[in-house]
Specification:
The chain has 915 residues and is of the alpha/beta class.
Length: 915
């Protein structure tokens, strides 16, 4: 991190700026925070950039060798962490250079030495104060080897590591799309790319899904497999990696080696946690398209948390629990025993309100012992950290008592396991209580950390210092009397004497200049109107005191590092185990609290095919609407009805319903209760979504091409255990072509893949598929026309519909009468032709005899629309404005959250107009 610095005494550049140049040359791509007394200063381009990023005043100081002014900006030392956070959040790498105790000489002048204390990039932040506490901070490395082909040899290797927690994950993939899915799930803040990956130009693809990620290009040697293997076996103290299941992970090991090499160069230690190897068989796979469409962690409007599933559930009581919740959402489990164990625990906590509230009350004060354990391991652990960790350790007995005394958890294996896995550390709490002062400073060098009575040698030094302080107090009183007596003898007024101390000049007596003083006073420094003196007695005592103070600091540092830290390090595994237990308990408590607050029910998890939801609700939309206003809907998917085709008008709630089914399924796999009256969820392997798209300019792909690519992904990767959500197919081409594609896709999903599918479409002709193919059920979203208004009921009703009400809405929008008249006539003609639409498949999979007498469309008598009321009339201007907004709203680009807000706005405006 630091290289020897030699001062060039012949240079015109000042010694301090020579130091700056020396450090900057070692880290040219990093912003240098350069310590200058009570400030960190920036020079040259760093100053210009930081003045913009941190809103600092840009000035100049001195000139360079060409007599050009040197740009300068700075921040106070006390503002370091706040500004580091801002810079790191902007994905800017940083080097911090601190002053050392060593003084360097340049002629008659002295100046402090400086050396790099920290190299911080977005992915290598260790200090929790600089991080988002509620989410992980992943550093990633990606390796690509085109020579790796075959069933057991995957070309893409990717590693994720959170240096603040030690979480370490290795994966390998065959395709770039699979790699991008993994990147989106983990959302690293920094990525190290192997030189070989430049062959496929992946940066552009990554930037599209992770706009603010920082890239570093690693050296080819960093990704060398043999060196990587050595680094990992050395780190884990093993001869082989086979015990971790990594024997065939050549590309993955190469990627991991690069991360370890980078961390070594930056002198960053990490906790020794076993690598996690991800297998898609173990968790519910949700690719990046589905994660975006379902708005699990980022909304589609501005990429923030608001209006997402996580927004509703992010109510954990500890930061560790928040990260665990995100982990469960990132990888919902497919292990039915694990799911049911979580559900049992949630049910126990749900039923015992008193226990739940008491546990939550205790957990609210629990510190982030996972990240504290990392600081302990890396050597950045300070006295305040020890106090925080101790506070957490003291909470553990309270948790154990609450859990052990509860009768309601006896039926929960997971809660009983939590009880067994919570480990108390009385020896650590006793150690910290006896050793660390409650008002300890953050920095050990500031002194005042260790309590009296903890160490005999330190107590003796305290005694010397205390006696010295008493001596100084008495000495000052004595010298004040002597000076005044001396002044009275010569007929002068008494003067105020001050005994002071400065780091550079030690202890001294200070008086107004020109006064007669006792003969044993020796001048140490003359100022403009003050003179400083010392005496032999004062110098001798000052030496004793300063030696004692220095020895106290040295002794405190020794005791803290060698006696306290070393003992605590032996318990790191216990701290991490407790962190894992506490974080899981926190998530389970959150699930139980939300289930109680939002009237969720326990889902039944089944390995059968069936997926049944009675009175299901969208977990996000219902939180946005006033209580009780959300319209519930049922879902029945089984072997006899594998495909649901949903027709009806825009804004009728089809998209909300589709997402609702997927979100309920995800929550069930996480082990949460769900927003429904009853839910039986089959074990799923993947969830696919094909929802509204826009042109992909990055790849030069049209709306239709993007749609086809997404649909192809579904057709090529779905299995019988998958859930498919389709919101329109075939819109980007001609009507006949789109209808043909939509029909063929539906038949393939039904007859070949046999997966559970919900398909919302404007092709009402697809309703006729239910006559030809076994396994299709038609539904529509109900609409009423009342008092000249179209009313969206948001209710799913059996049977299809050929009504979209597009022409009626066009008329209400103010279309000329002739246009509306022609449109109505044309629609009638087209509908007559298209309602007889039948598909003649080239094979007979799942076909059934044509039922000439059966109609698959809804009984129009079930919902009566006042067609006569659509006669031309004049609307008030305010109503016309609302209808124009309805007509021209870009519905394909709206999220459920945005659509409902628009509906609410329109409803309020129309209500005001009717007053």
């Amino acid at each position: 991190m630091n290289t020897p610095f030699e001062l060039d005494k012949k240079s015109k550049i000042t010694p301090v700026m020579q130091q700056w140049y020396h450090i900057k040359e070692q880290h040219p791509d990093y912003i240098l925070f350069f310590r200058m007394g009570d400030f960190y200063e920036f020079f040259y381009d760093d100053a210009v950039k930081m003045s913009e990023e941190l809103d600092l005043k840009l000035t100049t100081r001195g000139t360079d060798e060409n007599n050009n002014p040197i740009p300068l900006a700075g921040i106070p030392v006390k503002a370091l962490n706040d500004n580091l956070t801002k810079v790191i959040n902007k994905k800017i790498p940083v080097t911090v250079a601190e002053q050392t105790e060593e003084l360097m000489k340049f002629g008659s002048k002295e100046f402090f030495g400086r050396e790099v204390s920290q190299i911080i990039t977005p992915g290598t932040v260790l200090d929790p104060d600089l991080l988002s506490n509620r989410s992980n901070n992943f550093l990633s490395a990606i390796h690509y080897d085109s020579k790796l082909l075959g069933a057991d040899k995957k070309r893409f290797g990717i590693t994720f590591i959170d240096v603040s927690t030690g979480e370490f994950q290795i994966s390998e993939f065959d395709t770039k799309d699979a790699l991008l899915n993994q990147l989106y799930r983990y959302s690293p803040v920094e990525i190290i790319l192997s030189p070989q990956i430049k062959e496929i130009n992946i940066e552009t693809d990554i930037q599209k899904i992770l706009q603010e990620v920082l890239f570093f290009e690693g050296e080819k040697t960093d990704f060398n497999y043999d060196e990587a293997y050595k680094q990992l076996t050395s780190f884990y103290n093993t001869h082989s990696l086979d015990g971790f299941g990594l024997e065939s992970y050549k590309a993955g090991i190469s990627a991991a080696g690069a991360i370890f090499s980078i961390l070594k160069n930056r002198q960053i230690e990490i906790l020794r946690k076993n690598p996690q190897i991800e297998s898609t068989e173990n968790y519910l796979s949700i690719d990046l398209i589905a994660r975006k469409n379902l708005e699990l962690e980022q909304n589609q409007r501005d990429g923030t948390l608001k209006g997402t599933l996580l927004w509703v559930f992010d109510q954990t009581h500890t930061t560790m629990g928040a990260r665990k919740l995100r982990s469960w959402l990132r990888k919902p489990t497919r292990n039915i025993h694990e799911i049911n164990n979580r559900l049992d625990a949630v049910e126990s906590l749900y039923e015992d309100l008193l226990l739940r509230e008491e546990l939550i009350s205790v957990l609210k004060n629990f510190p982030d012992i996972e990240r504290l354990a990392t600081k302990l391991n890396t050597g950045s652990f300070n006295p305040r950290d020890a106090l925080r960790l101790n506070a957490g350790l003291k909470i553990l007995p309270k948790l154990l008592i609450l859990l052990k005394n509860s009768q309601s958890i006896s039926s929960s294996k997971l809660l009983l396991t939590i009880i067994n896995n919570l480990k108390l550390s009385p020896e650590i709490t006793d150690l910290i209580d006896s050793a660390i002062k409650d008002d300890s400073p953050i920095f050990l060098a500031d002194g005042g950390t260790i309590k009296e009575g903890f160490d005999n040698d330190l107590d003796q030094l305290f005694d010397i210092k205390d006696k010295g302080s008493n001596w100084l107090s008495k000495f000052e009183e004595k010298e004040q009397r002597r000076v005044n007596e001396n002044l009275r003898r010569v007929g002068k007024k008494e003067a105020k004497l001050k005994l002071s101390y400065t780091r550079g000049h030690g202890y001294y007596i200070e008086l107004r200049s020109g006064l007669p003083v006792p003969g044993d006073y020796n001048i140490s420094r003359s100022l403009k109107d003050r003179t400083r003196y010392t005496t032999t007695d004062l110098q001798e005592m000052a030496t004793k005191i300063l030696n004692a103070e220095e020895q106290i600091k040295e002794r405190e540092e020794f005791l803290f590092k060698e006696k306290i830290i070393s003992i605590m390090k032996n318990n790191i595994e216990i701290f991490l185990s407790n962190a894992a237990v506490i974080s899981s308990l926190d998530v389970l408590l959150t699930f139980a609290k939300l289930a109680n607050s939002y009237s969720y029910t326990r889902p039944e998890i089944s390995e059968e095919y069936n997926l049944e939801i009675i009175k299901g609700r969208h977990p996000v939309v219902e939180r946005i609407l006033p209580f009780g206003e959300f319209i519930t809907n049922n879902t029945f998917l089984n072997e006899k009805e594998r495909v649901l085709i949903i027709t009806g008008a825009n804004m009728g709630g089809k998209s909300t319903y589709l997402r609702q089914v997927a979100l309920i399924s995800i929550l069930a796999h996480m082990g949460s209760f769900v927003p429904a009256e009853y839910a039986k969820i089959s074990l799923l392997d993947r969830i696919f979504t094909r929802v509204g798209v826009v042109d992909d300019i990055w790849r030069g792909q049209s709306h239709f091409m993007v749609e086809m690519n997404e649909t192809a992904n579904v057709l090529n990767n779905a299995t019988k255990s998958s859930l498919i959500i389709l919101d329109e197919i075939g819109r980007g081409t001609s009507t006949n072509t789109g209808l043909a594609i939509a029909s063929s896709v539906t038949e393939y999903l039904l007859s070949n893949i046999k997966c559970k599918t919900i398909f919302a479409t404007h092709f009402h002709q697809l309703n006729n598929l239910a006559l030809q193919l076994t396994g299709i059920k038609n539904y529509h979203v109900a609409i009423e026309y009342d008092n000249d208004d179209l009313i969206f009921l948001y209710k799913l009703v059996e049977g299809g519909t050929d009504e979209s009400y597009g022409v009626e809405i066009a008329k209400l929008a103010g279309f000329p009468g002739k246009v509306v008249e022609n449109a109505l006539a044309l629609r009638k003609s087209i509908d007559k032709e298209n309602n007889n639409y039948q598909i003649k498949f080239s094979h007979k999979n799942g076909s059934k005899k044509e039922k000439k007498t059966e109609s698959v469309l809804q009984d129009q008598n079930k919902i009566k629309f006042k067609k006569s009321s659509l006669k031309s009339f004049i609307l008030p201007l305010n109503q016309q404005k609302v209808i124009n907004e309805v007509t021209f709203a870009k519905l394909d680009h709206l999220t459920a959250f945005e659509a409902l807000n628009l509906i609410k706005k329109w409803k309020e405006e129309l209500s005001e107009n009717n007053k």
